[in-house]
Amino acid sequence: MTQSFDVVVIGAGPGGYIAAIRAGQLGLSVACVEGNAYDDPKGEPRLGGTCLNVGCIPSKALLASSEEFEKITHHAEDHGITVKGASIDVGKMVARKDGIVGKMTGGIQYLFKKNKVTLLKGYASFAGKAEGGFNVSVKAADGTVSAVVAKQVIIASGSKARHLPGIPVDNKLICDNEGALKFGDVPKRLGVIGAGVIGLELGSVWRRLGAEVTVLEALPNFLAACDESVGKEMLKIFKGQGLNISLGVKIGEVKAGKKAVSIAYTDADGKAQTLDCDKLIVSVGRVPYTDGLNLDSIGLKTNERGMIDVDAHCQTLVAGVFAVGDVVRGAMLAHKAEEEGVMVAEIIAGQKGHCNYDAIPWVIYTSPEVAWVGKTEQDLKASGRAYKAGQFPFMANGRALGQGDSQGFVKVLADAKTDEVLGVHIINSHASDLIAEAVMAIEFKASSEDIGRICHAHPSLSEVVKEAALACDKRQLNM
Ligand code: FAD
Ligand code: NAI
Prior knowledge:
Strands 1, 2, 3, 4, 5, 6 and 17 form a seven-stranded mixed sheet that branches. This protein has a five-stranded parallel sheet with strand order 8-15-9-10-11. It has 479 residues and is an alpha/beta fold. The protein has 13 helices and 22 strands.
C-alpha cells in the first residue's frame, strides 16, 4: 500500500531536516527524503545537506585546526611561550573534520527517530497531483522506486557550486568546496577564483598551513556585500596576513596540466597576467539545485535564476507546495534555511509562522571574523534614510588586548530621529558570538540607547558593542 504523510520534505539539509523535525514536534506525520551519500563509507545517504557534509561544519573544523597551528607557530611567542618543531599532519586534520561531520550527521538520524520523522532514502521527484495532495516517487541508490502521497510538500533541495565555462572542476586539481575540504597535503601554491566567503575562509585555512595563496576577484571592491568600512579594513588585514588578493580581474584561459594549473587573467590595470598554482579553488557563488524534481508534473517551474519562486512565507505558486533554503531567494545561509523550515512547518500546522528577513546575521569565519546584521552605511545612504553611526575599536578594550584580539571594531548604525538600531558590523575573532546581541536588538526594535544602557560584563569583548552604541550619541566612556 502507498504510504501517505501530512508532509513530505525533499532534502535533509538545514532547511529540510529542521522543517521535518518541527513538523514532527507539531504532531504531523512527516517523511524526509535524502539521496546524497556524500563521502559515506557505506554509500548510505547522509543527512545534513551541504552544511554538515561539505559546507559550514567541515570548513569550520578546518578553520579551527589551522588557527590552532597559526597560533602555535606565530602567536605563542607573544605570550612568552616557545614552541619548537611544530608541524601539521594534514591527514589527521582532515580525519578529525570527517569525524565531526560523521557525528553530526548521525545526530540527525537520532533526532529524526526522536521526533517520529520517517527517513526515505533516495532521490525524490514529483509524479503529478494526487487526490488531496501530491504523488512523490523516491528512487533509491539500487534503482528501486517507491511511491508516497503527501498532503503538503516542502522542497529543500539546496544548492550546488557554480562552475565557470572552460574551467573543469575535477575536485582533485581544480576544486569547488567539495574538493577544497579534503586536500591530502598543503599545496605550495594555491589559486582561488572569487574573493567571497568560501574563497576567504578556505584560502585562509591553507595559507595558515603554509600555502602561498592568491585570490583573484572580478569585482573592483572587496567584500562588496559588507559595510564599506569593513571591506576596506578586512582587505588590509588579509593582505597583512599574507593573502595575495587581486581585485577587478578578468579570468581568461585556464590550463590544467597533470600536477599544476595555469590561469591567464587580465588585472585591474588591463595587463595580461598568469598565475601558476598547484591547486585551484573555484568559489564564485552557488546555484539552486532542482535537478530531477520533475516540477512540471505539478505545474511548477524555476525562474530565470534557477530558483523556485516563493512569497514571504515560502509558499510556491502551487498551493500545498512550499520551498525553503538555498533553492529560493535570499541569503544562502544555513540559519536562514532553518528559520524558513520552522516557519513553514508551523504554517502547515495552522500556526502563524514568520521569518524576519531583516534580522538574519552574516558571518565570515576568518581570523578575525566578520559579522553583521541589518543595513550597511551604503544601504542607508542609497535609501536616503537619515542615520547616525557609532564606532569603537577593540584596541581600547582590556579583554581584547589580553586575548590578543585587538584588531577590528564594532560599528552601530541607528536612525537619526528614532534611534532604532538599523545595522551592526563587527570585526573581531569572536564576532560570530557578539553579533547575537545585535540580532536581538534589531528583532526587538531596540534603540542604540537601549544597548548603551544594558550592563555588559567587565572585562568582556561585548563592552565594545555597548561603547559603539554609546558612540552613536558621542557618549562612549573609554575613549
Ligand atoms: P542543502 O544544505 O544544500 O541541502 C539540500 C539537500 O537536499 C542535499 O543533501 C541534497 O542531496 C538533497 N536533495 C536535493 N535534491 C533532492 C531530491 N530530489 N531528493 C532528495 N534529496 C535531495 N552557511 C552558514 O550559514 N554558515 C556557514 O558557515 C556556512 N559555511 C559554508 C561553507 C561552505 C564551503 C559552503 C559550500 C556553504 C556554506 N554555508 C554556510 C551555506 C550553507 O551550507 C547552505 O546555505 C545550507 O546548507 C542550505 O541549506 P538547504 O537545506 O537549503 O540546502
Ligand atoms: P560568494 O557569493 O560569497 O562569492 C563569490 C565571489 O566570486 C564574489 O566576490 C564574486 O564577485 C566573485 N566572482 C564571481 N564570478 C567571478 C569570476 N568569473 N571571476 C572572479 N571572481 C568572480 O560565493 P562563494 O564564496 O562561492 O560562497 C557561496 C555561498 O555559500 C555564499 O554566498 C554563502 O551564501 C555561502 N557560504 C556561507 C559561509 C558563511 O556563512 N560563513 C561560508 C561559505 C559559504
